[in-house]
């Protein structure tokens, strides 16, 4: 059985891509799922949505629901499907509704500041 815990992420978090700050939040959530690395979810209102383009990609998680994906587009790069959101998460993880998570990669950094 999958064990998921959602809690307020301590401190302030920032997400950057291509040298640009996409968002900064003191209200981020940390999602812990079994032995996976924690995932930081940023409130949508703290993200510069102008840099995100929704893609056709969707995935289904039996524990969280259906995820919608976004590519990050900035002057220096495009990071395909680098952000995701559960628009209508399952009740057990309802706290992540209205939040975005980012896949950490060479062009995308999620850091505590």
UniProtKB/TrEMBL annotation:
It comes from the Bacteria. Pfam families: NTP_transf_9 (PF04248). Residues 14-103 form the DUF427 domain. This is DUF427 domain-containing protein.
């Amino acid at each position: 059985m999958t064990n998921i815990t959602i809690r307020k992420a301590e401190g302030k978090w920032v997400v950057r891509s291509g040298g640009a700050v996409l968002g900064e939040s003191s209200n981020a959530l940390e999602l812990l799922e079994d032995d996976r690395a924690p995932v930081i979810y940023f409130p949508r209102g703290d993200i510069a949505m102008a840099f995100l383009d929704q893609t056709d990609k969707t995935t289904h998680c039996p524990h969280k629901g259906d995820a919608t994906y976004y590519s990050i587009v900035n002057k220096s790069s495009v990071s395909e499907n680098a952000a995701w959101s559960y628009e209508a998460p399952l009740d057990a993880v309802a706290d992540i509704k209205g939040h975005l998570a980012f896949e950490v990669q060479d062009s995308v950094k999620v850091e505590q500041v």
